[in-house]
Amino acid sequence: MRASVFIATSLDGFIARPDGGLDWLPQGGGEPHGFEEFIASVDVVVIGRKTYETVLGFGGWFYGAKPVVVLSSRPQAIAPPAGAVCEALSGTPAEVVARLELRGFTHAYVDGGVTIQGFLEAGLIQSLVITRIPILLGQGIPLFGATTRDIRLRHVSTRDFPSGMVQSSYQVLPGNPAP
Amino acid sequence: MRASVFIATSLDGFIARPDGGLDWLPQGGGEPHGFEEFIASVDVVVIGRKTYETVLGFGGWFYGAKPVVVLSSRPQAIAPPAGAVCEALSGTPAEVVARLELRGFTHAYVDGGVTIQGFLEAGLIQSLVITRIPILLGQGIPLFGATTRDIRLRHVSTRDFPSGMVQSSYQVLPGNPAP
Where are the alpha helices (DSSP H) in A21-146? Predict the structure, then answer.
């Protein structure tokens, strides 16, 4: 199973304000920049419970009718919104990937800071598409976190948009094994 | 006086390893990406004492014969390398800018994480050129830091290089006054 990240960050690397706020994103999400095509390419979404709750709290649901796996040790806490297909799962990133593979999933969309960081650290992300918004927030929820090693990437392509968004695609290079 | 930033960062926003190490930069600094043109456009360099000592410690001196102002409250600690034109100065970013303007300087190159952060927070940076290296370091000296407000930027241009470096130029938008 492949796993990909598709996310917007501020120029200083935050994916949300400290309270999860996304008001700093361009109006209407900015120009179309490939999210529809990306989400059509995945067959499962993996997010953390915190991201799940933040997404619900802000009244948005970006994942359509895709199966969404919420990483949580308290499965009873998951009450999905209408139309959403959610289930709770617990385990390490490697365990989660193994379980999703057993169920036939082939391409996961990994979302949310903590979850992305855990999967990157475990060597389980293959590609990242990062769309940078031209703003410094100064504080917030970071995209990246501490790692136990360098993780080298291959730059695939970059494009920019009239709104000032700059989108770069990367592949994680092999030879970045988990410790 | 204008003040500009021209700097390379890892994809996760670090300008150096925790010890100041720059071994993760592309061999030989990567493809020519405008540094020579940039440094020719400035008439003074402003760095913090820590950056100064780190630069010296790694045996590099990127600033040629440009006048370099080292922000330090201990002027006697500055022992410049041969050929370098250094002096120590202390004061807030606004005081430093005022003093350099009095001396006729017109374009400052502000370098080093702490100094860049202080000048940005003070509303005294007009442009940033950020060159992103395709690597996650996981820890290090960050380019950006906390701010007391959003700082909005205008994206000017982005280009990428075969080595995977992605360079974006931004202007700091007016209406980002210091608090």
Answer: 35-41, 49-57, 93-102, 113-121
